[in-house]
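Box 4.2: Ligand-aware structure prediction
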Amino acid sequence: MNHAAAIGFFDSGVGGLSVLRHAVAEVGRAPLLYVADSAYAPYGDRDRAHVLARSRLITRFLIEQGAAAVVVACNTATAVAVEALRAEFDVPIIGMEPALKPAARHSRSGTVAVLATAGTLRSERYARLVSDHGRQIDVLQCPCRHWVEAVEAGELDSPRVYDLINAELRPLQAAGVDSYVLGCTHFPFLVPAIRHVLGDAAALFDPGAAVVDQLKRRLGIVNPGAAHSPVTLYTSGDPARLQRHAHALIGLDTRALSLPF
Ligand code: DGL
């Protein structure tokens, strides 16, 4: 691929910025396009048809804007739509996968928790992942109610967030979990609050950097140099709000535009 061609990313909201941040200084000068589908979020509580339809529209839009590859920076959309997108579009489509394999290898207690949306946890793709990499260990699932909404609201360390995290993680900790898979791209933004609840001994697995490595391999990007990519943000929600969040979450100062659908 020509390194100046654009790369698209999308998520239901700001979660995928936790993946995009690894790409900004890693892909040469390739422009990065990011779609936050905030008006149609959260994906994790919606049915498959909704997530599939939005994923198709957004992927087509990103390709029309010049994307030569698309990163589905959302575990839920990957679980539901990645195969359909690969069949329908001609560009490389990179998906997310909860990092169960490294977590299973790392765990001493033999009990691992996957923190993800209900949509991801009930998917066939997730069931395959557990049967491929979770046979030798106990895998506990946690749908982490209201965590995505908290991140979308910019609430990362309020007492309410600590309560939400406590409610989900204390029982897992009591069940002997020592390794936690961050299986939703919103959750890396809660790591300080998760650490506050679990302490430093717990291992947290975020696949964001590995996904960008995979993107680079697919595109043949070997020596990206020191350049930073320009980023354009799009949203089906409020552009000014996305701009503020992108600044607060990953220090991005760039404009955000309205999605035309
Ligand atoms: N960030 C998304 C994920 O990785 C989904 C959040 C949502 O919209 O429910 O699954």
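In the box above, the bound molecule is D-glutamic acid. The pocket of D-glutamic acid is lined by residues 11-12, 15, 41-44, 74-76, 117, 120, 148, 184-186 (CB under 6 Å).
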